[in-house]
Amino acid sequence: MNATRAATTEEILKCAKGLKDVQVESVAMESTGVYWIPVMEIVENQGLEVLLIDTRPLSRVPGRKSDVSDCEWTQKLPSCGLLQSCFRPAEQIVEIRTLVGQKAVLVAEPSDWVRRLQKCLDQMKVRVHQAVSDSQGTTGMAIIRAIVGGERDPVKLAKLRDPRCQKNEEQSGGLRNGHWRGDHLFNLEHGLKMYDASCG
Length: 200
Description:
This protein has 10 helices and 2 strands. The chain is mainly alpha-helical. Helix 6 (91-123) packs antiparallel against helix 10 and helix 8 packs across helix 10. It is elongated and about 80 Å long. The relative contact order is 0.08.
C-alpha cells in the first residue's frame, strides 16, 4: 500500500477495521500539524481509543531517527505506560472551538483590509485620515468608494462627508492633490472588494 492511498478516508477505514478484527482496542498516533485531526476522528468514530502523543519526548529517544523507528516507539512507549495521551476536549467543545476560531479570523480580516486600503491611499497622497477621524466610518468609506468609482475632484470628494463629521470641507485638506497612479487605484479597488467580502 503506497503512502498516498494510505492517507485516504477509505484506506483509514480499512485500517481501523483491520485493527478491530485483530482485537486492537487503542491506537497511538503523533500530533503533527493538523494532519492528525481527520485520521483521529475517523478512527475514533470506528470505536477505537486513540492516544494522541506529543512528539517531543520521542525526539529525546537515543538512536538513529526515522519515520519507521518513530512509529515503533509511538507503539511501544504508550503500551508500557511511558507516554500519556495529550488532552483533547470532548467533540462538542472541539466544534465550538473551531467555530470561535473561525469567527476570530473573520473579525480580524476587515481590519487587515482597512490597513491595506489606508496604505493605498497614503501612496496616492490621499489622506482620508486627515479629512475624517475614522476612514472606516460612513464618510471615509463613501470617499473610498467614490475614488474607486472614478471620482478625482477633491471638492466633490469633500462633499461626501457626513453632516455629523467634525471637520468641514475646508479642513478636509487631505483629499487634495491625489496621485492617481494605475497600480495604486487597482490595489485600492481590489482591497475594497476584499473588505466588502470579509464584512459579509
